Amino acid sequence: MIKFLLNVLGIVLLMANCDFKNTSLVQTPALKTYLIGDSTDVRTQTKGGFLLMGGGKDVEVAIKWFLERSGGGDVVVIRSSGADGYNKFMFDLHKVNSVETLMLDSRDKSYLPEVAKKIRNAEALFIAGGDQWNYVKYWKDSPVEDAINYLINEKKVPIGGTSAGLAILGEFYFDARNDTVTSPEALENPYNEKVTIGNKDFIACQYLKNTITDSHYTQRSRQGRHIVFLARMAKDFGLNNARGIGIDEQTAVCINENGIGKVYGINDAYFLDSSGSKPEKCQIGEKLSWSSVKAYKISASLEGNGSFDANTWKMSGGIAYSYSVTDAKLIEK
């Protein structure tokens, strides 16, 4: 009898916790964080700026430049995969109050009040590498996006990104929603389903207007696809000055609060400018043709080389040249 009553009670409890119209289990997402340093929030005097890093091994001198601009405050790292790889590295590299990594690997987590609070309280924000489509689908049009733009445009703190973290910082961005795309694929058909570009609807950085970034640049031969991105920006959005910044691995472009940048590391950074030129052919299913796109290459150094003015798009300390595309072949002049 007792066993029978226990069985009945179990059934009643099960029915009480079921919604027969929707039996899916809803759980509150648990935020995974990693912290090194003092958990007490501090306020310091910051300097704005942007650390644009091309992936691969991190450029220590550039990250130190980024950390110095935090004024020794709290550094927040956001990502959707990996772990706490930046915590001890940054904490040991330059004196800061704390480094905290937030694992934002779902859209639900982007809406947790504690996430926006942690980001808004930061004196520096770094976006790690990973998959930029995850960053777009998890963070875009969420409190995370609002918090990032608050840091850039109101609080004026340094913002950094590497690889996928770099990819989302431009006003235009390759979102990789259909996976990555190679240069030959893009040049053969600028409207290949893998060429997916977001525009003016995510990160709002005044110094990256009309600009799309790319990383692992010459190591993965991405110059051709970068030109295609510019062609699509000109064709689809009517830009007369579509621009691009391509950055090699182990290389970083550091842009200060006034929009003036230098190139740090061991390889090169590339600045593309389509001003005064539009592609002759940029159509669905047809090879790209474009007679001239201006380019400028600045070789990096550990002390910071060259000069890039994001306000005027004028550069010095490097080499000027141009690209053309004929029959889907990229030609450097």
Itemize the secondary structure elements and their pairings.
Layout: H1 2-16, E1 32-37, E2 49-53, H2 60-68, E3 74-79, H3 85-93, E4 98-103, H4 107-110, H5 113-120, E5 124-127, H6 132-139, H7 143-155, E6 158-162, H8 164-167, E7 172-174, H9 183-188, E8 197-199, E9 211-214, H10 223-237, E10 243-247, E11 251-256, E12 260-265, E13 268-273, E14 290-299, E15 305-309, E16 314-316, E17 319-326, E18 329-332
Parallel strand pairs: 2-6, 3-4, 3-5, 5-6, 9-10
Antiparallel strand pairs: 1-4, 2-11, 7-8, 10-13, 11-12, 12-15, 13-14, 14-17, 15-16, 17-18
Helix pairs in contact: 5-7
Could you characterize the architecture of this molecule?
- The protein is α/β, with parallel strands linked by helices.
- The protein has helices at 2-16, 60-68, 85-93, 107-110, 113-120, 132-139, 143-155, 164-167, 183-188, 223-237, and strands spanning 32-37, 49-53, 74-79, 98-103, 124-127, 158-162, 172-174, 197-199, 211-214, 243-247, 251-256, 260-265, 268-273, 290-299, 305-309, 314-316, 319-326, 329-332.
- A hairpin with a 4-residue loop joins strand 15 (305-309) and strand 16 (314-316).
- Helix 5 (113-120) runs parallel beside helix 7.
- The longest helix has 15 residues, at 2-16.
